[in-house]
UniProtKB/TrEMBL annotation:
Pfam families: PTR2. The chain crosses the membrane at residues 20-42, 62-83, 95-117, 129-150, 171-191, 211-235, 290-308, 342-359, 371-391, 624-645, 657-678. Residues 696-732 are annotated as: Disordered. It comes from the Eukaryota. Gene3D superfamilies: MFS general substrate transporter like domains. It catalyses: N(alpha)-formyl-L-methionyl-L-leucyl-L-phenylalanine(out) + 2 H(+)(out) = N(alpha)-formyl-L-methionyl-L-leucyl-L-phenylalanine(in) + 2 H(+)(in); L-alanyl-L-lysine(out) + H(+)(out) = L-alanyl-L-lysine(in) + H(+)(in); L-phenylalanyl-L-leucine(out) + H(+)(out) = L-phenylalanyl-L-leucine(in) + H(+)(in); a dipeptide(out) + H(+)(out) = a dipeptide(in) + H(+)(in). One of its GO terms (molecular function) is symporter activity. One of its GO terms (cellular component) is apical plasma membrane. This is Solute carrier family 15 member 1.
Length: 732
């Protein structure tokens, strides 16, 4: 707890807060507030898409676009919150009012997810979907307003609690603040999906979205209460009028004035903002210059967020094509995202207490802008890692037919080996109940196939761009059956399973999670999606049953064949055969850890530093505005994801990753040049200088005024004397 700060700096204490180890106690309430708020935000966000999809019954496209619109809105509203805070209510009141709005929004979301409210027929599904949609949209709007509105204020308000001489403590505060963000988000992204998976309801049991939204709502109320409890200890900087309006007017005037004096006859000024000097205060002009300098530096930054925010989309999709078995633990694709906050919680302390001090000791001046540049490069490396992983995954993915091709698999439903001849292929022998290992690809729309001995010939039509299976019947002279097979890898790590019944009687197949229905003789079921893990199928034929168990990985597709020779009994394990239509994911999810490591190390260097940089380089009356500017780069970054992904439309995912990495390296190069020319400032010192000059000017003016007054008084008194004399003279 030693304080080795610049002794020249002012030591005045801010607020009435006690100090613990040189830190104002008030920041404890601020970091706890942030922890609860981030829990609330990320907890709700974790289940939002699933709520859209499974509760509101929206399709994937609508669910994804509303989700991204919501996230973008959350990073656009900080501007609104910052303007209100810096120019009207002050940060403290803005945080209180917007937190109330935020909590109302979260409660609205929780209520909108209670299906019983409109489930009049008690069948478990809401009967008035409009009510749920409208309430949840109002809720999301309020949440976006609340979370975005308070975001720049809370960070800046925390920074305000430190005196000018507490630079080191303030830097540590921003690191701890970041840890709280990630502690809260880590816990909630683990907890709310568990809550969602519970069944709840009054009349009927459904997935418990109301609880998954209700707990974040409760945490938001806790955040509000904690923040209010600390009220007496905060340093509350007064808002300084409608600063944004003044800034806009001042910039507008400078531009107009510059244009009016564009002719060469007018002497040039050092900075174009100096053209506002005729009308505006020099301090305001200096403050605007500081803000503009930082905002200019922000221009390349959205590209970092463009890569960073793909963790939640592209990388999660990548994880769905990977194997999530970690020993006995199974990691779901969306759970991989929790690697980010876990790494943040370990990397921030390591960076702060080991890496940065070590770099300092080596005599290197690792300035904030250098850190941010390195952070960008690390994010680019993360995307190169993602591309390498993608190349590995692509090697294991099935080759689906192009639009001009057809693919065919063969399944021998008979009890004897058959030989099959197809154009362009060697004769194929299939034993009883056996399927071909692979799909055969054909360019032609029709092919001649001959089966068995004596040969039975058939011309079969193939569907372009499709995968099909030819079911060769028990008696090959019977009608041949063609099935339409799955032509994409099952999503979200699911497995697509179907059954072919080769028996002469109908068979019913079921598992607790799905029912394949009654499968007629020599017929097949539709696909059912099944999660990974061990599954036991129960097969029923009349009153007879038997069980068949098997283990599933992630993203596979199987056709199970029930042969005509199946004997029902306690166990039909040996009789049923499985044809692997799509192999399970084989590239392990652990291979994503390097890319998560690099992006998170990049985040620590870029985001934690940027947060503090935005605070320290902002003039006192525009701290929240610059925080909002910083968050605005996140919103732009999210829009770039949509634009680049839409425009580039690269056929290979790994190429898209390389494209993003290259774009970031290019942007990083530009940023490093801009950063090279940036000179760090101490806004408080500059402002103090201006105030001193103004005071000195005032003193001068006062002196001049006093002198003038004295002279005037002298003159007046002479005049009076004269007049008195005159009077006297007259009177006398
Ligand atoms: C983008 C924000 C400015 C930064 C910050 N986000 C984080 O710190 C993320 N590491 C949190 C996270 C948690 C779980 C999954 C993905 C990301 C914030 O939210 O303020």
């Amino acid at each position: 707890c030693t304080d080795k700060e610049d002794p020249k700096k002012g030591k005045e204490k801010r607020g009435t807060s006690k100090e613990v180890c040189g830190y104002p106690l008030s920041i404890f309430f601020i970091v706890v507030n942030e922890f609860c708020e981030r829990f609330s935000y990320y907890g709700m966000r974790a289940v939002l898409v699933l709520y859209f999809k499974y509760f509101l019954r929206w399709d994937d496209d609508l669910a994804t676009s509303i989700y991204h619109t919501f996230v973008a809105l959350c990073y656009l509203t900080p501007i609104l919150g910052a303007i209100v805070a810096d120019s009207w209510l002050g940060k403290f009141k803005t945080i209180i009012y917007l937190s109330i709005v935020y909590a109302i929004g979260q409660v609205a979301m929780a209520v909108s997810a209670i299906h019983d409210i409109t489930d009049t027929d008690r069948d478990g599904t809401p009967d008035n979907m409009t009510f749920h949609v409208v309430l949840s949209m109002v809720g999301l709007f309020l949440i976006a307003l609340g979370t975005g509105g308070i975001k720049p204020c809370v960070a800046a308000f925390g920074g305000d609690q430190f005196s000018d001489h507490q630079d080191r403590q303030r830097r540590t505060f921003f690191s701890v603040f970041y840890l709280c963000i990630n502690g809260g988000s880590l816990l909630s992204t683990i907890i709310t999906p568990i809550l969602r998976a519970q069944d709840c309801g009054i009349h009927s049991q459904q997935k418990c979205y109301s609880l998954a939204f209700g707990v974040p709502a409760a945490l938001m109320l806790v955040a509000l209460v904690v923040f209010i409890v600390g009220s007496g200890m905060y340093y509350k900087a007064e808002p300084q009028g409608n600063i944004m309006l003044d800034v806009c007017k001042c910039i507008g005037f400078a531009i107009k004035n510059r244009y009016r004096h564009r002719s060469n006859q007018y002497p040039k000024r050092q900075h174009w903002m100096d053209w506002a000097e005729e009308k505006y205060d020099k301090l305001l002009i200096a403050q605007i210059k500081m803000v503009l300098k930082v905002l200019f530096l922000y221009i390349p930054l959205p590209m970092f967020w463009t890569l960073f925010d793909q963790k939640g989309s592209r990388w999660t999709l990548q994880a769905t094509t990977m194997n999530g078995y970690f020993g006995s633990l199974v990691i779901q694709p969306d759970q991989m995202q929790t690697v980010n906050p876990i790494l943040i919680l370990t990397l921030v302390p390591i960076m702060d207490s080991v890496i940065y001090p070590l770099i300092n000791k080596c005599g290197l001046n690792f300035t904030p802008l250098k850190r941010m540049t390195v952070g960008m490069l690390l994010a680019a490396i993360a995307f190169v890692c993602a591309a390498l992983v993608q190349i590995e995954i692509d090697k294991t993915l099935p080759t689906f037919p192009s639009t001009s091709q057809s693919q065919l698999k063969l399944l021998n439903m008979g009890s004897e080996t058959v030989t099959i001849k197809m154009p362009g292929n060697d004769p194929l022998n299939l034993t009883a109940a056996q399927a071909s290992n692979e799909y055969f690809t054909f360019e032609a729309g029709q092919i001649n196939i001959s089966v068995g001995h004596p040969e039975v010939r058939n011309t079969i039509s193939l569907a372009k761009g499709q995968r099909q299976t030819l079911l060769i019947p028990l008696t090959i002279t019977d009608e041949w059956l063609m099935t339409d097979d799955i032509t994409s890898k099952p999503q979200e790590g699911n497995n697509a399973i179907r059954f072919v019944n080769g028996m002469k009687t109908a068979v019913n197949v079921s598992i607790p999670a799905a029912n394949f229905g009654l499968i007629e003789p020599f017929s097949y079921s539709n696909y059912s999606l099944i999660k990974n893990g061990k599954v036991t199928f129960t097969l029923w034929s009349g009153s007879q049953s038997c069980e068949y168990s098997t283990d599933f990985g992630f993203g596979s597709s199987y056709t199970f064949f029930i042969p005509s020779t199946l004997v029902f009994g306690p166990n039909c394990q040996e009789s049923i055969t499985a044809a692997e239509d799509i192999k399970p994911n084989s590239v392990h999810m652990a291979l994503q850890i390097p890319q998560y490591f690099f992006i998170t190390a990049g985040e620590v260097m870029f985001s934690v530093t940027g947060l503090e940089f935005s605070y320290s380089q902002a003039p006192s009356n525009m701290k929240a505005v610059l925080q909002a500017g910083w968050l605005f780069t996140v919103a732009i970054g999210n829009f770039i994801v949509l634009i680049v992904a839409e425009l580039a439309k690269l056929p290979k995912q790994w190429a898209e990753y390389v494209l993003f990495a290259s774009l970031l390296v290019a942007v990083c190069f530009i940023f490093s040049i801009m950063a090279y020319f940036y000179t760090y400032i101490d806004p408080a010192e500059i402002e103090a200088q201006f105030k001193k000059n103004v005071n000195e000017d005032d003193e001068d003016n006062k002196h001049k005024l006093q002198k003038t007054e004295v002279e005037m008084n002298k003159r007046d008194s002479i005049k009076c004397h004269d007049e008195d004399d005159k009077d006297k003279q007259t009177k006398m």
